[in-house]
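so im writing up the methods section and need the Housekeeping sortase record in one place, dumping it here so i stop losing it
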Amino acid sequence: MKARRQSKLRPTQVLGELMLTAGVLLLLFAFYESFWTNLESAQLQKEAAEELSDSWGEEDAWVNPRGKVAPELGEAFARLYIPTFGSDYHFAVVEGTKDEHLLVGPGRYVDSQLPGQHGNFAVAGHRVGKGAPFNDLGNLQTCDAIVVETQTEWITYRVLPIGGVAADCLNQEQQAKLGAEYAGVQGLTITHPGDVAVIDPVPGTQVTAQEASEGLITLTTCHPQFSNAERMIVHAMETSVEPKQPGQRPAVLEEK
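--- predicted struct ---
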């Protein structure tokens, strides 16, 4: 009886097996990034939000959003709302932009200013997975509201011009500044990861925080989705500050 001839794998078959394995691994990674990390982040964000609410009820809580003393790394110190994304869109903002901070939620660049200060309150957040708080940044339009809640205030920022659309939501003095010292600050831009100038007090200038005449908020995230090749940047200018009143929320949160 003749022995069965053992078949040999062709190079194309080996390559096909390797590609199939790589594809499966990529699918598993995508599932982990877009689903499993969302669950982990949701729990961490819930805990941060609860701790923030508890701290705002304590006498020794961090209560000076306009002061120079910053929160501790990893500490939640404000809430972020973007009304156009729906009434359920709100995230506790933590101090810091390391991986462990952004797993919890949006994180403040520690060298930027605090909410309500002149200069630039800059915040990073993930676009895919890990809660994906900034997944829809590319849908923002000129004058859309970005609202920051601190223990004592509601601070409203309005997105600066995108695609040549005038920012009629700004007062005349602010609109004039868009043609002067803030001329280089666009509502939405795509840039490279090393462009740290976007979180300067007045991006595109050498103006210091002490010299800045307006308050900005800058939101940064990866671009495109599932890639960190570039960065999407959204800039908005402060337009109003309201002291918090028990049981009251500003009307801007009802905007669509």
